[in-house]
Design brief:
Number of helices: 13
Number of strands: 2
Structural class: mainly alpha
Radius of gyration: 21 Å
Bound molecules: fe (ii) ion
Order of helices and strands: HHHHHHHHHHEEHHH
Distance between the termini: 25 Å
Strand order of the largest sheet: 1-2
Shape: globular
Length: 321
């Protein structure tokens, strides 16, 4: 992989000022443009976490593909899980434009030193969880990623445009599962409610800690990697989702949820950040299982990578001849 466009720690104040002026004018930064080392590192951190989340995110749902209740549901779920693999690949490619090798990022994931979205460390206990994940987890991802489609770094922003289109399908298939179950037998409705009860709070945690507590927020906003803060995005998600729950007769599990008539915002109760910190630091219900599954998949796929490298070498030899 090529080296970054300038050596580490060489940020010249005049170049930084010119870079910040470009950002302020709303220009898009491309891989070959000069960028502060810290901007590059923030992007690598954020994009690799995002790519890992797409890939690890396949596991909780992949768990239900063989148990989907009908052929139609199986086809939709299969397509969705496959889309997530594609999202991971686009974003890993995007990080490669910043001078990082994808293999290095995957090694960090497998070694347990990289972060990914905490929500994928929760178990999928019933079929209704497929509904709750599509509706809430992909729904939260859309709120985040629609904003990232305007990020200042071109390759990341462009990847988000296509990803968001697919996320919309993911959300709709999830909401349809929930609506069908909620309109079904009392046992089916109870299963849908139980899934909502378990996934609601982890979904709110997906936006990350409050901006006041988030060490990276201010810098990401200043460089327009992010356009909106975590709290504002979380509020937008709650405002969108509360009426959707009501429309299918499900209850949001928050006794403090109230509509502020002046702002139009649904105010919600306190989030258990202690739980979030526990899960993000490796102590969630499925952290070990998820990493073990990724390690096994990586080991099982070694022959495919070897074959691809051998094929590429043969191709290169042939075209050289
Ligand atoms: Fe995705
Ligand atoms: Fe998705």
């Amino acid at each position: 992989m090529s080296e970054p466009t300038q050596p580490k720690g060489s940020d010249d104040p005049a170049q930084v000022a010119a870079f910040e002026a470009r950002i302020a004018r709303g220009e898009t930064i491309e891989p070959k443009d000069w960028m502060p080392e810290r901007y590059r590192r923030q992007l690598v951190r954020m994009m690799s976490q995002h790519a890992h989340s797409e890939v690890v995110g396949m596991l909780p749902e992949g768990n239900w593909i063989t148990r989907a209740p009908s052929l139609r549901r199986k086809i939709s779920l299969l397509a969705k899980v496959q889309d997530e693999a594609g999202h991971g690949l686009y974003i890993y490619c995007g990080t490669e434009t910043l001078g990082v090798d994808r293999a290095e990022l995957i090694d960090q994931l497998l070694a347990g030193t990289a972060k990914y979205s905490s929500i994928f460390n929760y178990p999928t206990l019933t079929w209704a969880d497929m509904g709750a994940i599509g509706w809430l987890v992909d729904g939260a991802a859309i709120v985040n990623q629609t904003m990232l489609a305007h990020a200042s770094f071109g390759p990341y922003a462009r990847a988000m445009v296509r990803i968001c289109k697919e996320e919309n399908f993911h959300k709709r298939q999830g909401y349809e599962i929930m609506a069908t179950l909620a309109a079904g037998t009392p046992a089916q409705k109870a299963m849908a409610q139980d899934a909502l009860d378990r996934w609601w709070w982890p979904s709110l945690m997906m936006f990350g800690p409050s901006d006041k507590e988030s060490p990276n927020s201010a810098e990401l906003l200043r460089w327009k990697i992010k356009q909106k803060g975590n709290d504002e995005l979380r509020q937008r998600f709650v405002n969108l989702t509360v009426p959707q729950a009501a429309a299918i007769g499900l209850h949001i599990p928050d006794p403090l949820l109230t509509l502020d008539k002046e702002t139009g915002d649904w105010e919600f109760g306190p989030i258990d950040w202690n739980e979030f910190m526990q899960v993000i630091s490796g102590n969630g219900p499925c952290n070990r299982e998820r990493l073990a599954a990724r390690r096994k998949a990586h080991a099982d796929g070694a022959w495919v990578r070897d074959a691809a490298v051998a094929h590429a070498a043969k191709d290169a030899a042939r075209s050289a001849a």
